[in-house]
Amino acid sequence: MGAWRWRAPIARTVNPSLVSTFSSKRHQDPPGEWAQLEDAEAHADRDSRRVLLGPRAHNAHFQGNAITTSKYNIVTFLPIFLFVMFSRVAYLYFLLQASLAWWAVVSPFTPYGPTIALVFVLLVAAGKAAAEDRKRHAEDRRTNNSAAHVVQADGGTRDCKWWEVRVGMLLEVRDGEDFPADLLCLHCASTNHVCYVKTTNLDGESNLKIRRPLDLKGGVVGSAAEAHALVGVLRCEPPNPNLHYFAGRFTYRAPGGSVAAVPVDMNGMLLRGTTLKNSGRIVGMVVYTGSESRIQMNAAPPPRKRGAFDTFLNVQITVVLAIQLVLCLACSLASLHWRQAQGFKRYHLALTNFSEGNYQSSAAYLGILFLTFWILLSYLVPISLFVTMEIVKFALCSVFIAFDPALREGKAGEQARARNSDIVEDLGLVEYVFSDKTGTLTSNEMQLRAVAVKDAAFGGLGTRLEDMPEGSAEANLAAFDGALAQAARALREHGFLPAAAAAGGSDAPTLALSSSSGNLQALEQSPGLRRMLHTPAADKPSPGAREARGAADADGGAGDDGAGGDGPPICQGPSPDEVALVEGARRLGFEFLARTRTHISLRMQGHKVDHEVLTTLDFTSERARMSTVARAPDGTLRLFCKGSDQAMLARLRRGTDADLLAATHAHLRRFSVQGLRTLVLASRVLREAEYDAWHGEYREAAGSLDDREARIAAVAERIERDLELVGITAIEDKLQEGVPDTIRLLIDAGMKVWMITGDKQETAINIAVACRLVHHADKLLVANEDGSPEAAQALLQDLIGEARRRNAAEGARAEMVIDGRTLGRVLGSAGEGALAELASLCGGVVVCRASPAQKAAIVRMMARHKQQHLQASAPATPLGRALRALLAPARAARRQVHGVRSRMLAIGDGANDVAMIQAADLGIGVMGKEGRQATNNADFAISQFRFLGRLLLVHGALADYRLGRLIKYSFYKNISFASMFFFFQFFNGWSGQAPLDGVTAAFYNAFFTSLPIGAFALFDRPVRQLGTLLAAPQAYNRKSPLTTRAFWKTGVLTAIVHASAVFFIPYLSLSNVRQRPLDDVNALGKTMFISMIGVVSLEVALISRFWTGWFIAAWALSWALCFPWLILLGTIYSAIRANDSTMIGTGRALLGAPIFWVEVLLVYMITFSLRFAERSARWLFFPNDDMVLAEREMELERRGTPLASDAPETELALRPAEGRADKEGWAEQHGGCHGAAAHGGNGKLNGI
């Protein structure tokens, strides 16, 4: 197969013999060009994907490459939009109302009003949907019409659009271009035959990834023309969303007609959404296109989550509809009774003349009147609320959160993102916070701090290699650890270092030593070392090594992201830990130089060596380790392995010295207590025959399409054994800025914070102490149990009693730690409830050695516990059980409403946090260095953990405040309006007549009262300076403005009282003795309409605490326009020649009558006075937390004391007192029940 190693000096140079071989073969067997290859693939899984490669390959049956992210087109917009809207129960209800309005027999209104209201709401929603979808269409057009380069037979290219790309095509991609589809790399123009891709758009990682062309039995495709001439078949897995795994086998016809097959994995795949960098150009075969590409299959939206207020609304709307049902039935019965008792006696009503709508049958009459009253009282449910809520939620997320400068890292930092505006109110209702550690609490900026070689440790936590000067390896090594520098110097002086470097390390007898402190004279007697010292290969690189050096000289190193100049090289790697190890070793004189497809170049204390990389066993979370088999310059075969201590120590050679193991465990514990991340390193020398036999098994496993990953893992087990311990590395991952203050803020706000990590217990505790999650490490409740589930449950019961004793005695919540093994014994067993109960008693919980599945299970466990906690204990008596069954619906509603105030939040930055994020009520992704899978599956995304405090305590509290008041006052204005109609029925014989026309009623709901309430919901805030909310975290989620009691008090009771004044004052003022009498129903209705708009506007103005220009404009406009509306409506009806006496002339008559103005002003004075008195009494004697904060804020402004800044970086001026504050009775403790402002402001708010 050596003929396959083409080294053409120009990338497009064609190998004539290869082209002629393939050309002749094509002419000999045109119809069966792939027949032999198919015979070789006869055993392949027929469910797998089969892609033909060749000049005349036909793959037309696959998905096209055009993508469509838009939801609608010009034909489907209307039907799909209407289907989506009317699939919601609320909009279906309003559609029914509007439809019934066209049945003149039952409708008390003209049909235009309800229809206009529904159409208006649908138009607003349609405009929002169309605007969003228009952006998607523009992005789709830009993407689909991008240029791709199709490779021709001569190696040239022709351009086509991305949407024209098909599976099996050969495409050329150049530096800086995005890959148009998922490609199999066949050729790379760089001299070292590797390419570098930037995957930021795919997974968010900024470091470059190395990809290699297809390895054709040791050869490479040397040009685009040779790639075009290649004939083969790719068998691979069906389309799937896995970004890190690919299984395939490429069968091809080699020169001479022989058939060969090679495995294909993710290292040879170039995925759509990534960008080619520093590689010149590549040629690849299209494998997946369009919606079948990996990036598109990962574009699924996060799971549908319901906001807390949606749950609340469902309960309250159900109750309101039940009340409406009862009222309609009662009014129908009252109408029937009045007709029989009074109506038949009043001959002028002609009720004895039965006709349509006045049926003689009592049942028919009741049915018609029931529908009439149903339409009349339909205003109990506000149709405008739903579209207003969508607009407000969209603005809260897309404007206030996304453009908050305090939620980004400097002007150039990434802004916060909201991917699910439906649950924005949940930000203000969090009780539990489940946080990942690495990359979430820590910065994911790794730095090497210490190492252990055998039983000796070097370096320490205070060692800062990153601050040491460049180019001073010997001085840096001495600063890192003098003993290590002395050992390196002695090795050089005795001539051991060149030989050891050429051999790839110590020989097997030296590796087996239990201590690294032996003297050099003893080592000099080692036969293996003497052989190394006299090996000519120590100074003679192989041809492959020379190739590696040439590639390094030509390309300037591996993964250099365009950073030229004389500065230090920029290392790129798949893991921050690996980059930290390479960077730390470089500063100590052990330098990584270059990486080619087959070789790696190193400089070891000034001695340049090149190793041939034979096999790499990649890291997986199941294996918790990775290995590489390499051949040293002297021909020695070695296995190098690194991984977690749990995975590595179990694979050491039997008989490993007990003292060495004890010293290793001591080093691991010491490094972990210091908060350092540890890796265990091991190695062993392999025999050539052993490796050849194993490698055959490995190639067979790597070439399989079924269970490739499991088969490779099984084969890896057979070589990753009998290892010799080399040592330990200890890496520091520093806390992010502001993490301790943020966790302190969350705990002071009453949240229970969990830190869940896969690290060792000592490391996790140390980080928890550093970030102030744990205050007393010596008093931690430790839940570690290796025994049975029953033993674990017994331990948890004991700890529950201890936690209760500590909470009662010390006045501060207990803190606990639990490991993954104990979790595995408890989760899903009878002990799960005990664990949840124990955790609920603790203010801080640390979970270590947890798997991704356990992270999600913890969230679900606490959610179930919270729901069970809300259920009252079952009565023991039969009567009690009967009452419990009778009240079950009410109890279920209570649980739903109370569950609103306890939301679970999960925050993480990596793919291993996705399950936890999706299981929580609220998922927060941190845009860190572990990719974008967490943020792509989260509801909200931030760039730093410290922004979580502001996101919850400011934006969450504002969303809770604004949306809660929006819901209350939307129901208030509508129940007031419907109550006015209901009162009128007492005086019209329960006829179902409305005192107002349908058009005016529709505009009342959709415009005149929605505009000020919408502006109020967008711009109002409980305090003037938002930093006050950060300064007083105890007020967070203590009592929502939207409780059942507040809803029924404001939305129902206040509404009925105001409706009484609006109806009875104009009604009782009716008189026909004046010169211009206003005694008809039309005048009464218009008077009540004007009065009601003013009452609602004054109510909104009264409860608004932060008047902005936008709010004032909306408030004044809606109120001012209602007066000319009376004249305008009559003018419109006159213009269209609609002879309706209820419209024409009534407005002018009203506005010209003094009694009208007296009635309206009297209504305003009475309702406003009642409400003002009630609000004043509340502020003076029963202030809530928001009122107390506002008073303190005004007091500080009067004194000229600076208040806390809105920016989270600034030290809070209103910092809470030490320790955890008890949130219960907080307002009473910090303001009393007598209004501090009214009594000189003597109360104090933790430093205000």
UniProtKB/TrEMBL annotation:
Transmembrane segments: 72-94, 100-126, 312-338, 363-387, 971-990, 1002-1019, 1046-1068, 1088-1107, 1114-1136, 1148-1170
Domain of life from the UniProt record: Eukaryota
Domain P-type ATPase N-terminal: 57-112
Pfam families: Cation_ATPase, PhoLip_ATPase_C, PhoLip_ATPase_N
InterPro entries: ATPase_P-typ_cyto_dom_N, ATPase_P-typ_P_site, ATPase_P-typ_TM_dom_sf, ATPase_P-typ_transduc_dom_A_sf, HAD-like_sf, HAD_sf, P-type_ATPase_N, P_typ_ATPase_c
Keyword presence, Chaperone: no
GO function term, MF aspect, one: ATPase-coupled intramembrane lipid transporter activity
Residue numbers spanned by region Disordered: 533-577, 1223-1248
Main location: membrane
Record-level GO BP terms: phospholipid translocation
Membrane topology type: Multi-pass membrane protein
Residue ranges of every copy of the P-type ATPase C-terminal domain listed in the record: 936-1184
Gene Ontology cellular component list: plasma membrane
Feature: compositional bias, Gly residues: 556-567, 1232-1248
Keywords recorded for this protein, A-Z: Magnesium, Membrane, Metal-binding, Transmembrane, Transmembrane helix
Location within or outside the cell: Membrane
Record PANTHER family: PHOSPHOLIPID-TRANSPORTING ATPASE (PTHR24092:SF150), PROBABLE PHOSPHOLIPID-TRANSPORTING ATPASE (PTHR24092)
Protein name as catalogued: Phospholipid-transporting ATPase
Originating organism: Elliptochloris bilobata
